[in-house]
UniProtKB/TrEMBL annotation:
Residues 93-180 form the PPIase FKBP-type domain. Residues 183-211 are annotated as: Disordered. Residues 199-211 have a biased composition (Low complexity). Belongs to the FKBP-type PPIase family. It is an enzyme of class 5 (isomerase). SUPFAM superfamilies: FKBP-like. Residues 183-193 have a biased composition (Basic and acidic residues). This is Peptidyl-prolyl cis-trans isomerase. It catalyses: [protein]-peptidylproline (omega=180) = [protein]-peptidylproline (omega=0).
């Protein structure tokens, strides 16, 4: 009888071990495998190449303008270039006052300048479109530039969940009206007794400078 119980115990243990081994063997393969990563990289390369081809077509068509390529992977041209010797450009600790409009690469308006006014942005302290965050720092007061952003410098795969679609390259024209140190911007807002709207991650303005 004891021998029979021993056999049952050994058999049950063996089944348990086998079951655990089989469970471990059924674990899904990691999606971070070399094959998956290579396929993802190839998809991104094709996407970027396609968008760059679209942007190049826009540049070739705009024969009157001279576009400048940046190391960040976007292009821009001057619509209005400053003639003053002042070299001040927006930097962290400044507030940039600007207007802008957003179009697709065919020139169709997505957001008008009028509906986006006013834009007041704490440089490098707020979440705005990556391309604009970098592009604004190239500008001087009074300048107007048109930027051609591939989607990875815009709103990427998800778009803005409103009018900008997924993986959509953008044509963005920015008019930099003024640059002020943040303390001066706060003082100006306090003197006028108004809440000054700031840019947010989407084109609409909802935040205010704290008094």
């Amino acid at each position: 009888m004891k021998f029979f119980k021993l056999i049952l115990s050994v058999t049950a243990g063996a089944l348990l071990i086998t079951g655990c081994t089989q469970q471990q063997a059924r674990k899904p393969l990691s999606h971070s495998s070399g094959t998956f990563m290579k396929e993802s990289v190839e998809r991104n390369k094709k996407l970027i190449a396609g968008e760059e081809a679209e942007i190049e077509a826009v540049i070739k068509k705009d024969t009157a303008a001279q576009y400048i390529a940046t190391a960040k992977g976007y292009w821009y041209k001057y619509d209005v270039k400053s003639t003053v010797t002042d070299t001040l450009t927006p930097k962290k600790g400044n507030v940039a006052y600007f207007d802008y409009e957003v179009k697709d690469l065919k020139g169709n308006i997505i957001y008008t300048e009028l509906e986006l006014r006013p834009q007041i942005y704490r440089v490098d302290k707020q979440n705005i479109m990556m391309g604009m965050r970098d592009g604004i720092k190239l500008m001087k007061k009074g300048e107007k530039l048109t930027f051609l952003f591939p989607s990875h410098m815009g709103y990427g795969y998800h778009g803005d969940n409103r009018r900008i679609g997924h993986n959509q390259p953008l044509m963005v024209t920015i008019n930099l009206r003024d640059i002020k140190p943040e303390k001066d911007a706060k003082a100006a807002a306090k003197d006028t007794k108004t809440n000054v709207p700031l840019t947010t991650e989407t084109p609409k303005t909802t935040e205010t400078i704290k008094q």
